[in-house]
Design brief:
By secondary structure, the protein is α+β, with helices and mostly antiparallel strands. Helices cover 19% and strands 33% of the residues. The radius of gyration is 19 Å and the shape is elongated. Keywords: Hydrolase.
Length: 184
Amino acid sequence: MRFCPNCGTKVNFQIPPGDNRERAVCPHCEHIDYDNPNVITGTLPIFENKVLLCKRNIEPRFGYWTLPAGFMENQETTKEGALRETLEESGSHAICGPAFSMISIPHINQVHLFYLATLPKADFHPTEESSEVELFEYDDIPWDDIAFSSVSKTLEFYLEDIKKGAFDFHEDTIFPTQSQQLKE
């Protein structure tokens, strides 16, 4: 942000009194812009012991497989957002279960939250956002073609929980790789 959304004055970047981070502060009206992380919410949909994945038809990571997920909207709960994204990306009406994984990705200012979900029937199809939507046996998950590390982590947690016969809530953090750090 370069200009105040309230009065249009060019902002200064400084640490406001009582804060601990640099923020965009308007020198004219004193508006402080709090640029906070985005929440990505989605589901890990299961039908007859198979995982539903969507092949991305949009950037980023066009052509790679992902769980149905996306940015949470204002005035919706994380569950509502997860179910909306599942419908938008797979055409399926999932039944949302418990929160399953929460993954912080501080270097891109995002938090990814996935819910376990069941599909009452195998009713899914490609959408504007997904060129393909498929159910995968656990052994057939296309690991080399998974779009995002948060999706890989969530799938790994799920398969570990299947093996132990109990589902837990998983929390993790993904830090940039060395090559990502060199680009920044």
